[in-house]
């Protein structure tokens, strides 16, 4: 019995390694075809739901998981990385809905995008991790800059040319040409096109 278990365990490990290698290989081919660069991953799931523009770069240590089925719950994940997107190391992205990063946006390290959340019904017979997911889109506009350790939650649109300060948690929409910081993130500056400078909104 122990020999049979060992053989089965070894076979599952080998199958998992081969599957992960093939999935990464397919994603690398997509990147190379469009002139992009893909660093070493820590975890990759269902890369067929990832759409890549030209000259996209993702640095090492990324974790991208696209969920199309969660305990029988059908989901519609899609991650779109438009032209010129640059993503720093240790990027995490949980995709259960539409996640779009528009062209020429840059991320520093440890940025996290979360388009899903577990159910939070304390009266349910299911533990939180097994309750149905709630999902929502994420849209990050053109030419944005997200600093170190930023987290963006579901049902959020960040407008064009925004800057999000390090360690911020973005839980609601940020209008275009804004600087936002904090947890939850709030807008502290807007760009004034008449004066050609960032204008503080705080006293």
Write a structural description.
- With 203 residues, this protein is of the alpha/beta class.
- The protein has a single domain (2-200), classed as Hexapeptide repeat proteins (UDP N-Acetylglucosamine Acyltransferase, domain 1, 3 Solenoid).
- The protein has one helix at residues 2-33; strands spanning 37-38, 41-45, 50-52, 57-58, 62-66, 69-70, 73-74, 78-81, 86-87, 92-95, 98-101, 106-107, 112-114, 116-117, 134-135, 138-140, 145-146, 151-152, 156-158, 163-164, 169-170, 178-181, 186-192, 197-200.
- It has a nine-stranded mixed beta sheet, covered by helices on one side. A six-stranded parallel beta sheet has the order 2-5-10-13-18-21. Strands 3-8-11-16-19 form a five-stranded parallel beta sheet.
- Strand 6 and strand 7 (73-74) form a beta hairpin.
- The termini are far apart.
- The model has no long low-confidence stretch (mean pLDDT 90).
In short:
With 203 residues, the chain is α/β, with parallel strands linked by helices. It is 16% helix and 36% strand. It has one domain: 3 Solenoid (UDP N-Acetylglucosamine Acyltransferase, domain 1), CATH 2.160.10.10.
List segments where confidence is low: pLDDT < 50 over at least 5 consecutive residues.
none
* Major sheet strand order: 1-4-9-12-17-20-22-23-24
> What is the gyration radius calculated from CA atoms?
19 Å
Q: Output the CATH topology.
A: UDP N-Acetylglucosamine Acyltransferase, domain 1
User: Could you state the oligomeric state of the chains shown?
Assistant: single chain
Integer count of domains:
1
Distance between the termini: 72 Å
Question: Given the structure, what is the number of helices?
Answer: 1
| CATH class type | Mainly Beta
Order of helices and strands: HEEEEEEEEEEEEEEEEEEEEEEEE
